[in-house]
Automatic annotation (TrEMBL):
<protein>
    <submittedName>
        <fullName>Metallocarboxypeptidase, peptidase M14 family</fullName>
    </submittedName>
</protein>
<dbReference type="Pfam" id="PF17033">
    <property type="entry name" value="Peptidase_M99"/>
</dbReference>
<dbReference type="InterPro" id="IPR031489">
    <property type="entry name" value="Peptidase_M99"/>
</dbReference>
<dbReference type="InterPro" id="IPR033397">
    <property type="entry name" value="Metallo_peptidase_C"/>
</dbReference>
<dbReference type="Pfam" id="PF17129">
    <property type="entry name" value="Peptidase_M99_C"/>
</dbReference>
């Protein structure tokens, strides 16, 4: 389970080969819980980036919200609609031999939880839907910028007046258009009347099981931050209609969304490691030699993959950085270290944090612990008790693109090989 202060994350594993999805719970569980999903198709970043920002950038004041940003993380990593076929066409019948059988069943179980009253699935579609043909990018065969329902009503179900609810969302979206051609429309697929593809979809699975379900599509023509802008306007309106109160930590404008997305990418916290606007390639990173990678990140769209002798850190569709590992036995000997920053008094710092220094820092010696300042020395000796300034560290060992952040690693000294305890980052600021 990931350690997140603002919300709870539960992992549901299918297998090592086919990954996981994350269920993030916001608010307090009750019998009126909205479930928002993204990433069921891995080549639709507007959908999964919106769900992830919803999970990380919102606070639920009243009500209950579940968010799954990464329904199909392996396909997200590969920028593929579906590395094992379209997952959104696997919710009717599915062979036991399908590699995604287990994870599809897990998703079904989640949707069927009694407290789930509404499902909102976020997608990116091509062009801009229009009821009548205008041109090749604006016609009835396009799926961009629409609200989708499977049927007009779902009798005797809470929020079952699907058409009325979706039209309210469309009306709200059209108050905030960035360009008139972005106009939203409602699209009723009338799935039960024989839409063979939609009969297999996640939303229709919910409908069949008495759950109100909606899909929101943003146009692939738009830059990702504008897709997210439209998706979040839609989600907020659905939440209001469901009586769920929330606070947002950023401004819901295209510029505010872009800034929030950039900030989310700039800091990655992964177990014993932290990355701030990391370089495209980093030096040796100490990983556990017990075969289990302790690399849990607090961001559902971050993943670690191996390519030969190198590891990649992914953020959604992007490879953020690459590194070569060094393998060590891990130790929990200490969880804090004493450090003097500039000319101040020594203070204790929890491992895994970033500290700032104007001119220098010095690690205070601790018995049984070896300090390794990456980029300072060339031999594995203890480098505590040394006043370190930026010009004493080789810039090519910096962690970030601005060459201002350096890592300080700590090891438990043993009779045989040292054990990795953890690290802090030191940022030299002007």
């Amino acid at each position: 389970m990931r350690k997140i202060i603002a919300f709870l994350t539960i992992f549901i594993f299918a297998s090592y080969a086919y990954g996981e999805f994350s269920l993030i719970k916001l608010g307090i569980d009750n019998n009126n819980t909205v479930l928002v999903t993204g990433g069921i198709q891995g080549d639709e970043p507007g959908g999964f980036m919106s769900a992830n920002l919803l999970a990380r950038g919102y606070e639920i004041i009243s009500g209950s919200l579940y968010v799954v940003p990464n329904l199909n993380m392996p396909s997200i990593i590969k920028k593929s609609r579906g590395i094992n076929g379209d997952m959104n066409r696997k919710f009717d019948t599915l062979s036991d031999k399908d590699p995604e059988k287990d994870i599809v069943e897990q998703i079904k179980s989640l949707v069927l939880q009694p407290n789930i009253t509404m499902l909102i699935n976020l997608h990116d579609g091509s062009g801009f839907y229009r009821p009548k043909y205008i041109n090749k990018m604006m016609n009835p065969n396009r799926w961009g910028n629409i609200a989708i329902i499977d049927q007009a009503t779902l009798p005797n179900v809470i929020y079952g007046d699907l058409e009325v609810t979706a039209n309210k969302v469309v009306k709200e979206l059209n108050k905030h258009l960035l360009d008139p051609k972005h106009k939203y429309h409602l699209r009723n697929t009338h799935t039960a009347k024989g839409d063979k593809e939609m009969l297999k979809s996640l939303s229709y699975f919910a409908i069949k099981n008495g759950k109100a379900a909606y899909a929101n599509e943003a146009s692939k023509t738009l830059p990702v931050h504008e897709r997210v802008y439209y998706h979040l306007i839609a989600v907020e309106e659905y939440l209001k209609l469901a009586g769920i109160e929330f606070k947002r930590k950023f401004e819901l404008t295209p510029q505010g969304v872009k800034k929030a997305l950039d900030e989310d990418l700039s800091v990655l916290v992964c177990g014993k490691f932290m990355f701030y606007s990391p370089k495209s390639r980093l030096g040796y990173i100490p990983l556990s030699n017990d075969g289990e990678l302790e690399f849990d990140c607090d961001n559902a769209l971050v993943a670690l993959t191996k390519n030969k002798d190198e590891y990649n850190i992914h953020y959604g569709n992007k490879i953020v950085t690459r590194f070569t590992p060094q393998f060590f036995e891990y130790s929990n000997l200490i969880n804090e270290i004493e450090i003097r920053i500039d000319e101040g008094e020594p203070k204790f710092v929890i491992l895994g944090q970033k500290i700032s220094a104007k001119n220098s820092f010095e690690i205070i010696k601790r018995d049984g612990v070896r300090t390794n300042i990456i980029g300072y020395g060339t031999t594995p000796v203890d480098e505590s008790g040394i006043k370190i300034s930026k010009d004493m560290i080789k810039s090519r060992f910096s962690m970030d693109k601005d060459e201002s952040i350096y890592r300080v690693e700590f090891y438990e000294e043993t009779d045989s090989k040292d054990k990795f305890i953890g690290m802090i980052l030191v940022e030299f600021v002007k």
